[in-house]
């Protein structure tokens, strides 16, 4: 039998349908691989082995009954969830001491849709605390390591999701993207990471960081799997007031096209140049040439207000999270410290928040609270919202000329653990290319385009207009096909095994 942890989601579904292997064998193979590799990678905060095996047995019963064909395209496929997504009966910690013992009383819509589709839930994935970071070094429960190089970051905030998928611990993972937290990890781990159109996937049951920016999305090893996952987890949800009441475009069909002839593709002038690794720019230039060779028309476009997007984001996001995290007050749920009878409630709240939040969370809370304070609201938060509008108008002008835009996903390859922890601005610049898309609410994704000279993955960002998510998959499918043709196989097969364990392909 082929190694089940190497398989794509589509291949697992095919093998189950032909009874080449059972769903329990699929689940057990991933759990066994987790036993070997997880101590090195630390992608998971909670494993749900029993739930995965129970779900697998239910799928096997359906197969035995001869009705497996009635189930969806991801039935019997393992999946894992970022730990800011509620799953009833499991912990939802957001990688914070503030929620260390919190057990979810209900299930997020995007998680429930995966369970309803017959997926096998493997557990909850590590992240930067409350999604505050670009390296997964801000987790209160330890860092996650990049399967390509254990001394390097897997990206953030969803480094657990990207590392689990890159390390073959799970073929599918759900992440969330506020400023690049799916796409930047995808770029540095050689995985596919998609930020759907804002409102295209329900946020109900996903712990809010910045409500106008947060967007759940898929993390996978190939483009078709991402499209299939997006189609299952997405679509309208009446429980989410921001959910778009329109059907999703044909995502899997677009992924299967694997051609770009006739598309007009814009290269964003402002997303490149000084501060970008030479390897990143080289791989990006090569990918753009692939698009030309594939029959696409490539033009340069200017989005001048992207220059201010990073500054605007780091006012809007902290302001919104300051409001959202006010709920962690040591009263209703979560951590409570210092309640020894000597302190009033205000003092207990202050003490709890001081002990429960990590350093980066405190930094952003202070910035956000200040930006919203009397006398400074218009100067800071109000001005940032004006920049947001201008960035959205830049996108509108660019999409009037182009079907999609492209750029590097992040300016550098995966940096070493600890390299930027003392320099917050250097850390924030990891999201330089991804933030504009969150500000505008359009669709965007990162696709692997090769390796640096030191053997580290590089990603290409593709950006599409709102509700045109299928264009991402069309371009991504072509890029993937071209890269696999040049490498004679998937990029992840170039990763080296880790100390005798098959932590990667």
Strand content: 5-15%
Q: Work out the count of structural domains.
A: 1
Task: Classify the helix fraction into a percent range.
Answer: 25-40%
Give the N-terminus to C-terminus distance in angstroms.
16 Å
CATH topology: Amidase signature (AS) enzymes
- The CATH superfamily is Amidase signature (AS) domain
**Outline:** globular
Largest sheet, in brief, is: 11 strands, mixed
Low-pLDDT regions: none
- Strand tally is 11
Average pLDDT value? 95
Radius of gyration: 22 Å
Helix-strand pattern: HHEHEHEHEHEEHHEHEHHHHEHHEEH
Largest sheet, order of strands side by side? 1-3-2-4-6-5-10-11-9-7-8
State the CATH class: Alpha Beta
| Count of individual helical segments | 16
Summarize this entry quickly.
By secondary structure, this protein is α/β, with parallel strands linked by helices. It has 16 helices and 11 strands. Helix 7 runs antiparallel to helix 8 and helix 10 packs across helix 13.
């Amino acid at each position: 039998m082929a190694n089940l942890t190497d398989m794509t989601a589509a291949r697992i579904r095919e093998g189950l349908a032909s009874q080449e292997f059972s769903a329990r064998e699929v689940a057990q193979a991933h759990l066994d691989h987790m036993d070997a590799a997880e101590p090195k990678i630390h992608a998971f905060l909670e494993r749900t082995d029993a739930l995965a095996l129970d779900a697998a047995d239910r799928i096997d019963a359906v197969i035995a009954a001869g009705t497996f064909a009635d189930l969806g395209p991801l039935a019997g496929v393992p999946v894992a969830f970022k730990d800011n997504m509620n799953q009833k009966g499991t912990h939802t910690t957001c990688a914070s001491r503030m929620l260390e013992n919190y057990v979810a009383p209900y299930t997020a819509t995007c998680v429930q849709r995966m369970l309803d589709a017959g997926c096998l839930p493997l557990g909850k994935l590590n992240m930067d605390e409350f999604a505050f970071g670009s390296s997964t070094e801000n987790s209160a429960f330890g860092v996650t390591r990049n399967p390509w190089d254990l001394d390097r970051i897997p990206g953030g905030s969803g480094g657990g999701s990207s590392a689990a998928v890159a390390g073959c611990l799970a073929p599918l993972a759900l992440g969330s993207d506020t400023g690049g937290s799916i796409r930047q990890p995808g770029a540095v781990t050689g995985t596919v990471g998609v930020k759907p159109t804002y409102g295209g996937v329900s946020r109900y049951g996903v712990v809010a960081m910045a409500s106008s920016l947060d967007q759940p999305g898929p993390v996978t090893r190939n483009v078709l799997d991402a499209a299939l996952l997006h189609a299952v987890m997405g679509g309208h949800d009446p429980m989410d007031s921001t959910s778009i009441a329109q059907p999703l475009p044909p995502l899997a069909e677009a992924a299967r096209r694997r051609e770009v002839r006739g598309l007009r593709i814009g290269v964003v002038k402002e997303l490149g140049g000084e501060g970008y690794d030479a390897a990143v720019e080289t791989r990006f230039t090569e990918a753009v040439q692939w698009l030309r060779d594939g029959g696409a028309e490539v033009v340069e476009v200017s989005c001048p207000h992207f220059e201010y997007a990073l500054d605007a984001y780091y006012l809007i996001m902290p302001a919104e999270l300051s409001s959202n995290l006010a709920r962690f007050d040591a009263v209703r749920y979560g951590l409570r410290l210092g309640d020894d009878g000597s302190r009033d409630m205000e003092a207990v709240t202050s003490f709890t928040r001081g002990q429960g939040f990590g350093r980066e969370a405190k930094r952003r809370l202070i910035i956000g609270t200040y930006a919203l304070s009397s006398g400074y609201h218009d100067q800071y938060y109000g001005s940032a919202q004006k920049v947001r509008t201008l960035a959205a108008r830049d996108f509108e002008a660019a999409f009037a000329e182009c079907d999609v835009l492209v750029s590097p996903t992040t300016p550098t390859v995966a940096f070493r653990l600890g390299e930027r922890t003392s320099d917050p601005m250097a850390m924030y610049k990891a999201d330089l290319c991804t933030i504009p898309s969150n500000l505008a609410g359009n669709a965007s994704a990162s696709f692997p385009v090769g390796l640096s000279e030191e053997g580290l993955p590089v990603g290409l960002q593709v950006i599409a207009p709102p509700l045109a998510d299928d264009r991402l998959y069309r371009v991504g499918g072509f890029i993937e096909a071209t890269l696999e043709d040049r490498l004679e196989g998937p990029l992840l097969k170039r990763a080296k095994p880790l100390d005798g364990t098959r932590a990667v392909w």
